[in-house]
Task: structure prediction
Amino acid sequence: MRTYLDCIPCFFGQALRAARIATNDEKQIKRLLDEVGMMLQEISLESTPPEIGRLIYGKVREITGNPDPYREIKRESTEKGLALYDSLREKIKRSGDGLLTAIRISIAGNVIDLGVNREFDIEQEMEEVAQKEFAICDYEAFKSCLDKTEEILFIGDNAGESVFDRILIEQLKKPVIYVVRETPVINDVTHEDAIQAGLDQVATILSSGTNAPGTVLETCSAEFIELLNSSEFVISKGQGNYEGLSNEKVRIFFLLKAKCPIIANDIGVTVDDIILKGINI
Result:
């Protein structure tokens, strides 16, 4: 997905929010905003938002000296998710369709997105998504592809959300490779975050090699790119991965909540819609 003009104010908002978490030094924050403004002058709108986000969060690390501003927030988000883990598993057992319920739970976890949302109530989100109709629901194709595949490549999004991905992985009942970011960026899930969420108990954890807030293939490892291109079944969580992968010629099922009007418009839905969308299926 390309970048739109309306994305530019959002980039500034993200930079300011991350900087305020990383430091109390207003001179550093002002310098960051100045440099982001100069950097955006040179960036093509044909770039994907994660490509631009990678540069912005690189500036946050460089100027503030803080390599992981969201570390404590990520830890707390994961603890909140783990506190709900047992009750959500029981909910799946009581449901008529455990797989679809687990997909809903995983999508509900997508609200834990500090690039977009400043505040969220995960328990309320679970209740709302449980009742909400899908704007796009390629569930039959999802089940058909799942039946035929031997292994699943699951591209994670945010820390905390990864607990709810774990619940879905348990319902897939196939070997899963769970993909994380190489280094911290916003509250995206890293290897450390995935271990805290217990993903190592249900999947093989693999870094994509990128430090972008999404999947930017030009910055990913050769191992990940080979896996992506050879995989018969790919699950991609969240907006950043959609932005980076929506034009790829690989069979991918995107699971997300549309939290941004630009992304909602690109997909053809409205803000707050929930989506299970397959491409190349």
